[in-house]
Amino acid sequence: EEDNLQRQWSLKDFEIGKPLGRGKFGRVYVAREVKSKYVVALKIIFKEQIEKYRLHHQLGREMEIQSNLHHPNILRLYGWFHDPERVFLILEYAHNGELYKELRKRGHLTEMQAATYILSLTEALAYCHEKHVIHRDIKPENLLLDHEGRLKIADFGWSVQSRGKRHTMCGTLDYLAPEMVENKAHDYAVDNWTLGILCYEFLYGVPPFEAESQADTFKRIMKVDLSFPATPVVSLEAKNLISRLLVKDSSRRLSLQKIMEHPWIIKNANPMG
Ligand SMILES: COc1ccc(C(=O)Nc2ccccc2)cc1NC(=O)CCSCc1cnc2[nH]ccc2c1
What we know:
Blueprint: H1 2-6, E1 14-22, E2 26-33, E3 39-46, H2 47-52, H3 56-67, E4 77-82, E5 86-92, H4 99-106, H5 111-130, E6 133-134, E7 143-145, E8 151-153, E9 160-161, H6 178-181, H7 189-204, H8 214-223, H9 236-245, H10 256-260, H11 263-268
Antiparallel strand pairs: 1-2, 2-3, 3-5, 4-5, 6-9, 7-8
This protein binds ligand AK6.
């Protein structure tokens, strides 16, 4: 299977199915590899779009990063090919779609479901960090669910190979750590902050610093203006974990290892994702 994935692919190897949505730079379709009948997601990106945003070097670097990321909670990039005007990414297809839609449909998740997703995310991030990859854009829209309901971090449109501090802004505001909002140098610890945001949003259905305006969201993030609503009822351990991640000083945020060992995770997460 592995060597098969490295072979030269072309469009005639695939039957294109329904559109899955518009990504940053192109459209994504369900597709089936003709010989193996294997179902994938095919992302079609127009080269003139990449040239326009001067992203061809980023795309190349990203393909390097992606093809070496093999983790059960990270969406696979199986390979890519191109024709004169388009680049095609052969991506894993997550049959149960966007976690975001499930969260909106159910309002908020159970503590077991939330803890299971947070553990999966933590393990995936620990894996990325040991490969010197910061994701920096973990938000519900970028989280998908496979046919077994297992979480997949899906979008690496902005991942970077990082050995030092990063300075570029990215992502929507609700998930930005203070050091990113202040456009300060930031590092791996931004992902720990984001885990706190997501844990809160999984349990309450809304991100903790949501506000009418961007300016107000900025202020709430910078103040770490965190409060827990009376409903839905959430355990003290869950609030403890959130409070130990949403810490302004990035060096004092709970480490990924400590998250995996936290009582709320041990008690509520399904270790098989
Ligand atoms: C590993 O993933 C990715 C790797 C690279 C890129 C990318 O575009 N890189 C880029 C492009 C241009 C310039 C520079 C860099 C994007 C993704 N991932 C996605 O685009 C989201 C899931 S698309 C698949 C997919 C699967 N399963 C689903 N189920 C329901 C919807 C759905 C959607």
